[in-house]
Amino acid sequence: MVDGASHDVDSSVLAFEIAARAAFREAMNKAAAKLLEPIMKVEVVTPEEYMGDIIGDLNSRRGNVGGMDQRGNARVIDCMVPLANMFGYVNTLRSMSQGRAQFTMQFDHYDQVPQAVADEVIAKMA
Asked: Is the separation of the CB atoms in 117 and 52 below 8 Å?
C-alpha cells in the first residue's frame, strides 16, 4: 500500500485495520524476513552420575553443548539453548538430579529460528 483516502461511505476503523494487515503481510513476504530468537548461555553444575540425562535433556531442548569441565567433585556443562525451550527447566533439572544439580542462564545472542519452528510460530499467528 502506497496511498489511501478516507470516504464517508466506506471508511471505518475496521476497513483501515484490514488494509494495514494486508499491507504488512505483503511487505513481510517481499522482505523475506527471518524470525530470530534469544539464545541463552547455560551453565549446569551437576554430580557426575546425572551428566548423561542432563546432556540428553539439553539436546532435546535444541541446546548445543559447548564444553564440559570439572569443578571440585562436580561436573560443569556449558551450552547454548534457545530461551523458549528453557521454561520449566528448573523443575526438570531438579527431578533428573534429585535436587543436586543447579544451573545459571544469561542472554548471549540472537539466532535465526529453524524453519520448522518458524513455520509453527507463523501458523499460530495467522
From this structure: no
